[in-house]
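Hi, here's the filled form for the chain we discussed.

Project: internal
Contact: R.S.
Residues: 260
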Amino acid sequence: TMHIYAVMGELLPRDVPSSELIRKGFAVPAVIIMYKRKVNMRLLSLFHPIIAKHPNVPSIREYQEIKKFLYTEDGDRLMDGVKIAGILKERGLVPSLFIMKEKKPAELLADKLQGIGYRTYLVTGIVRGEERKKIFELARNELVDFIVTTVVGDEGLDIPALRSEVIMSGGISSTRFLQRVGRVVRPWKDKRFGLVIDFADQIWFFSLQAQLRLKIYGLESAWTVIETENIRGVRNAVDWAVQKFSVVPQTASQPVPDQQ
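And the returned structure, exactly as it came back:
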């Protein structure tokens, strides 16, 4: 059973699983979308020609180059984040938190979202004190659409009003992913479910990490996990969740959408 001590601290005994809290009404259901994103290998090889020689079993050096490409250079990946932000905004699933690996792409994403007109704030490790407190207070009052943060700025975030979270940072830490899911399942006015969209990049070690995260998510019976390979599938999954947990009674149970 997945324990949520990492999320709730001393408020709960260590043997209370998230699904039990959901069943008792102390948390809302979680919907997790694994976006199994295909990596643009042509673009990757242009940035890092050495990768083309060993695309399946890269060396440590090649792994570092793939990591750099995914988290700092892949413009297509960044634009996927922008498209997903639009989906969330249109469906009222804000405030939303975007978690990035590095500061540079976090700044780029925040700039793009601000340019569209979304109420967006950037929170990195250097944003502290009163400024950080002010941003979180705006989010609690639902005066924010998106907070874009890095894995460093991600630590200690406490925003019960969050309705969705987009994880673009990868990783395999079960405690960290518990904390991240825990943020969006905290009860809040009119919140009927918490949504997590996890970028599961389909290339070598990063896809293996995604498989481990998928196993973590699957341990909780009250978490619905949907896998999809494109933005259309993400949109369909979000629409399914909105309809599934709508205040309007459904005439029949809604099946999970086909994985695309």
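Let me know if anything looks off before we file it.
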